[in-house]
Amino acid sequence: MSRRILARTLIGGLALLLSACQDTQAPFNGKDISGVMPDLAFELRDTNGQTVTQTDYDGQVRLLFFGYTSCPDVCPTTLAELNRVMTAMPTDLRDDLTALFVSVDPKRDTPQRLDQYVHFFGDRIVGLTGPEPTLRTLAKRYRTTFGYGDADEQGNYDVSHSSAIYVFDQAGEVRLLLRPGMTRDAMVEDLSRLVRQGTS
């Protein structure tokens, strides 16, 4: 092999290597919060009234979202979009993704009500809740909060809460913050990348 051909081969191989490195180090579309917040940890009740912890969903990329079933806009819009995102995931990756919808309105959100609500949005969305002090501790763990408005004559009230979606990898380590305004394709790209990182 001549020196010229050898040089071209080496340059071509180096270019491919650099390209591969750039692809693996490309930034996520969502906000990378790796190491900024604690790992996933909770002890809550599922829609069967059973106590569950983060270990019940080990091996999954998990999306954590705080809300409540009486939410008039943010929660149904977000959960519907999450269902579309999970449906748009590559077929071989869908079973490696679970959304955890944590209701911060335990007074009204019974296991039965929560079960009916989350199932409306798809079978990859899990409904969880717990006593208010437990929920406040969990919210504080991820640097957010929630509050209750005054009840009207019928006993209805609003609950203020964050619209952020926290993403944890298969090991339970915090990785991403998905914010309002992200496109479906951007979320699918990020979540697919995380799933593949954990299974490679």
Structure description:
The strands form 3 sheets. Strands 1-10-9-4-5-6 form a 6-stranded mixed sheet. Helix content is 36%, strand content 20%. The chain is of the alpha+beta class. The two termini are 36 Å apart. Mean pLDDT is 89; it is low at 1-23.
Summarize this structure briefly:
With 200 residues, this protein is α+β, with helices and mostly antiparallel strands.
List the main descriptive attributes of the protein structure presented here.
200 residues; alpha+beta; 6-stranded mixed sheet; two-stranded antiparallel sheet; 5 helices; globular; disordered N terminus
Topology, element by element:
Layout lengths: L2 H22 L6 E2 L10 E3 L5 E3 L7 E7 L6 H15 L8 E7 L7 H10 L4 E4 L3 H10 L5 E2 L10 E2 L4 E4 L5 E5 L5 H16 L1
Parallel strand pairs: 4-5, 5-6
Antiparallel strand pairs: 1-10, 2-3, 4-9, 7-8, 9-10
Helix pairs in contact: 2-5
